[in-house]
Here is the input.
Amino acid sequence: MKLHYYPRSFLGLLLAGFTMVIVPLVAALAYSAWSTERLTVQSRSAVFNASQAARASRSLVDRIGSIERLAQQLSLLDDPELAVGYARVHRAFKQLAGEISQLPLDDAQGVALNRTVEQEQALYDLLTLSPRPRLEPADITARVDRLIESARDVLAINNRIVDREVERLRVKAEQVQRGLFVLVLFGTAVALVIALALTRYIARPIVEIDAAIRQLGGADFSKAITVRGPEDLRYLGRRLDWLRRRLEEFETQKNRFLRHVSHELKTPLTALREGAELLHDEVAGPLTRPQRRVVSIMRDNSVKLQRLIEELLDYQRALHAAASLEVKTVVLDVLVGEAVREHELAARAKGLTLEVDAQAASLEADPDKLRSVVDNLISNAVKFTPQGGRIVVRARIASGEAMIEVLDSGPGVPFEERESIFNLFFRGRTKADGGMKSSGLGLAIARELVEAHGGHIAVVPGAEGAAQGGHFRVTLPRRSARALADAA
Here is the structure.
């Protein structure tokens, strides 16, 4: 048997599930923050280096302008102050070149920078020789022009490097953006998969508890109730199983009691009926008229008592049946037609007209229980409708509900009895045609079965001035209460 690990409490299970769902999202968020921070650092470094290189390159070109001016002056004048100023500018040039060399240069930029430094150093060495040779201004100008050209090459290469860094940062940003998008999709998908798996995992004990409650509601006490999950839900499962055992005991005791009562009542009642029949048949000798009347009373009441016992047992079975509906698709006209055919002989014997007006519509219900309801209503109408009367059975769909009606031309139901007529063992003032007294169980059973379907049964009051007669209406949802509960 596959084992499942659960925390000790349902709250712990929910917290663990929430943590597992949030972990991939937090990981994606942390990676996104790290990637963004890394891109920010790289961008800051690249921008700083590019700006430093551009500033130093421009300063280098500016220093070459000063070198050109001082070199032209030194070539013509032998002034110590000019030599000191030139040495200061030379040192500043060397310092700027050193700063540029510390930057991340490529090979072409390094070559251009070294060439520029070497040309500047050669010019400086030439102008500071002692004794200094005579120099022509054109020669100084040519050297300075070559120096300026090299410096401009450094500046141009720096500009290209800046553009390259900007492009590299753009590409890197797009890569990070695509990576974050993919990461968000992947993290969300992982979180959803984990959430779905955890939903089934967390819902498992709840589904088992729901199934256990449905089992008890259906009066099925045969299967033990076991709930897997956290300790608090397993404890609830054990309590439900204890309730199942108690209900099973009560059900067994009730059935045993009914069997005993039925047996204890039927045995002497059978002897009483047989004795009454023997006396009525004058087996023990002829009877006088008063004696025959007493024997008839004994025989009739013993038959009524036996029928009451059987109907009481039928009512108990009906209560059990109402708790365990077997919902199927039912076609109204077919079900009503089957129920009507069962009473055609009884109706014909009384000269009754039995009419059916049923739609070919469908609903979800227990066909056997619903047929029993219609059977009870038709039987009740046949019983109370006088000789030559008329009974109409209708079935249709109205306002999204199934409606079954039974109308008769009998005495009807008094206004004050329209609610109590569905109570157990209630007997109204109206007597059945033929003198047979009602047991007060048929309509009570019908109400239990209708309400088990989530429907309603009632007596429909007749219009003022209309002919008297019974009118019973059963209203049922197109989908039964049990079907809706199962779908929940």
